[in-house]
Write a structure and sequence with these properties.
Layout lengths: L1 E7 L8 E4 L13 E2 L7 E2 L1 E6 L5 H16 L25 E9 L2 E9 L4 E10 L4 E9 L2 E4 L7 H13 L5 H7 L6 H12 L1 E4 L5 H10 L1 H11 L6 E10 H7 L1 H5 L10 E6 L2 E9 L2 E12 L5 E5 L5 H18 L3 E4 L8 H13 L6 E5 L17 E7 L2 E6 L11 H6 L11 H7 L2
Parallel strand pairs: 5-18, 5-19, 11-17, 17-18
Antiparallel strand pairs: 1-2, 1-6, 3-4, 6-7, 7-8, 8-9, 9-10, 12-15, 13-14, 14-15, 15-16, 19-20
Helix pairs in contact: 3-4, 5-6, 6-9, 9-10
C-alpha cells in the first residue's frame, strides 16, 4: 500500500511537496478507515484530492504514473518529451533535476524508491527498505549516474559490478529496476519485490479509461466481472445486468466490412486491438486458441413494463460507461489489496453516483486496499460517514506553483461543515470566477 509520495520540480510542482496516507490517530471518527492490523504503521484506506482547474490535481496522478512507468519500462524516458515534465515557470528550469520518491508496503516490508532525473540522464536512483517502527533505513541499492552501491549484506562480485556499469552506460535513461527484469543483476530479492508492487499493486485510472481495456480485464478475471455485475443495477442507470459476448472475427467482419477493412492484417497472439464504432472504442479483438474473436459487452436495459432489451455499448450514455470503468477500481481496492488512483472520479458522473461509488468503498468493512481520487464533487465533503478530515487533501496554486496540504492541518471541530468552508474559500484551493469584471477591465 502507499505510504507517501514526494514531488519536486515536476510539472506544476516546484518546491518539495508530500502527499501521504498517514492518519491522525487522535481522530476517532470512522476508525474503520484506518488499517492497523498486520501493519507496522497505521494507514488510511482512502483519500480525496480537491482543487481548482489547473491547480495540479492531475499532475499529482501523473507523478505516480511517471514513477511507475520509469520503474517498469526501460524505454519510458526515451519515449516522452522529458523537458516537458520539469517545472518550467522559472529561469534555467532544467538545471534542477526532477525529484520524485515514493514509500510503499509490500509483502510485509516497507520500501522507499527515489529518483533524480536530469534532461539527459538519470542522476540518481535508489531503493531502500524502511522500518517505520524504528525509523531506520537500509539501502538495497543506490545508483549515481553510472556507479552503483549495493546493500552491505549482499555480496556482489567484480564481474557483476562491471557488467552493471556497462549496462547503465548503454542505457543512461533507464531505471535499474526495469533493466534488472531483462538482465538480472540485482540478486537482492527486495528489488524484485519492489518491481512487483509497481507492476501488480499500483493501478492508475485516467479520465479517459477505454472500454476495450475494461473488456480485456473482464475477460481475464471472471471474479472481477461478477463483482461488477452485482453492482451495476445499483448505479441506477437503467441497466439491470451485462454480459461479455464473443463472435468469430470472420462472421463479424462480414457484417462490418468497412470497419474490418481498416484493421491491421496481422495480430500477434496475446495482443488485442480496440475497435471503434461512431468514433468511440467499444469493442476488443483478440486471438484465443488460434481463433480470432471480437468481444463486446451487451447490456440488459430495462424498458416499459419490465421489458429487457439487450443493447451494446453504443446505446449507453458516457456516464454509464464511465461508471462501469470504475467498478473494477472498487474491486481492486477492496478485494485485491491494491492501491488504486482515479483521476477525476466525477468525470461524466453526477454527484449522487460519485457518492454511491465512494460510499461503497468507505462502508465496506473487509477492504484490504486503498482508493485515492481527485474530484470537484464538493458534496462529498459534507458526507461525514464517508470522508475523514485526514482523508481530504487540497491542491492550490501559489505564485504559479502547486502546493499540497491536508484538511487535517486546519484543526477544525468535526461538526464544522467542510463543504461550506471549502466553498467560502476558507481552505484555499478554489477560485471565484468573475468574467464580467475581467472583460470590463480590458475595455
Amino acid at each position: 500500500m502507499l505510504l507517501r509520495l514526494v514531488i519536486q520540480n515536476f510539472l506544476s510542482f516546484d518546491d518539495v511537496m508530500q502527499f501521504d496516507m498517514f492518519p491522525n490517530m487522535k481522530r476517532t471518527s470512522l476508525s474503520n478507515h484506518v488499517y492497523t492490523k498486520d501493519t507496522d504503521v497505521p494507514l488510511l484506506k482512502q483519500a480525496a484530492v480537491y482543487g481548482q482547474n489547473g491547480a495540479g490535481k492531475s499532475n499529482l496522478v501523473k507523478a505516480l504514473e511517471f514513477i511507475k512507468s520509469f520503474a517498469l519500462d526501460k524505454n519510458f524516458l526515451k519515449s516522452i518529451e522529458l523537458d516537458k515534465f520539469f517545472y518550467r515557470l522559472k529561469e534555467n528550469y532544467m538545471e534542477t533535476p526532477i525529484c520524485l520518491a515514493i514509500e510503499f508496503s509490500h509483502g510485509g516490508k516497507y520500501y522507499f524508491y527515489e529518483m533524480e532525473i536530469g534532461n539527459k540522464s538519470v542522476i540518481r536512483e535508489a531503493l531502500s527498505e524502511t522500518f517505520p517502527k524504528s525509523g531506520q533505513i537500509e539501502l538495497v541499492y543506490e545508483r549515481k549516474k553510472g556507479k552503483v552501491e549495493y546493500a552491505d549484506k549482499v555480496e556482489v562480485d567484480d564481474v557483476i559490478r562491471s557488467a552493471t556499469e556497462v549496462l547503465l552506460k548503454k542505457n543512461p535513461l533507464s531505471s535499474l529496476l526495469s533493466l534488472n527484469r531483462e538482465f538480472p543483476i540485482l540478486q537482492d530479492p527486495r528489488a524484485t519485490a519492489a518491481y512487483r508492487w509497481f507492476n501488480g499493486n499500483l493501478e492508475i485510472i485516467g479520465v479517459h479509461a477505454l472500454l476495450p481495456t475494461l473488456i480485456e480485464m473482464f475477460r481475464k478475471d471472471t471474479q472481477m466481472m461478477e463483482f461488477a455485475r452485482r453492482l451495476i443495477a445499483g448505479l441506477e442507470v437503467g441497466v439491470q445486468d451485462f454480459n461479455l459476448t464473443d463472435e468469430d472475427f470472420e462472421q463479424w467482419a462480414q457484417k462490418h466490412i468497412q470497419l474490418a477493412s481498416m484493421l491491421p492484417v496481422n495480430l500477434e497472439k496475446g495482443e488485442h486491438l480496440a475497435l471503434h464504432a461512431d468514433n468511440t472504442p467499444v469493442l476488443s479483438i483478440n486471438i484465443e486458441n488460434g481463433i480470432k474473436k471480437v468481444y463486446q459487452l451487451i447490456f440488459d436495459n430495462i424498458g416499459k413494463n419490465g421489458f429487457i432489451g439487450h443493447l451494446d455499448a453504443r446505446a449507453q450514455s458516457d456516464g454509464t460507461l464511465r461508471a462501469l470503468t470504475l467498478l473494477p477500481a472498487l474491486y481492486m481496492a477492496s478485494r485485491q489489496r491494491k492501491t488504486v488512483v482515479v483521476d477525476e472520479i466525477n468525470f461524466c458522473l453526477n454527484p449522487t453516483m460519485v457518492k454511491g461509488i465512494v460510499s461503497f468503498f468507505a462502508h465496506t468493512e473487509d477492504t484490504n486496499g486503498q482508493l485515492i481520487f481527485t474530484t470537484h464533487d464538493t458534496q462529498l465533503l459534507d458526507e461525514k460517514d464517508v470522508l475523514r478530515s485526514d482523508e481530504v487533501w487540497f491542491i492550490d496554486k501559489k505564485e504559479g506553483a502547486s502546493v499540497l496540504y491536508c484538511h487535517n492541518d486546519f484543526k477544525e471541530h468535526h461538526t464544522i461543515s467542510m463543504m461550506r468552508g471549502y466553498n467560502e474559500g476558507r481552505y484555499g484551493a478554489i477560485r471565484f470566477v468573475n468574467l464580467m469584471d475581467t472583460y470590463e477591465k480590458k475595455q
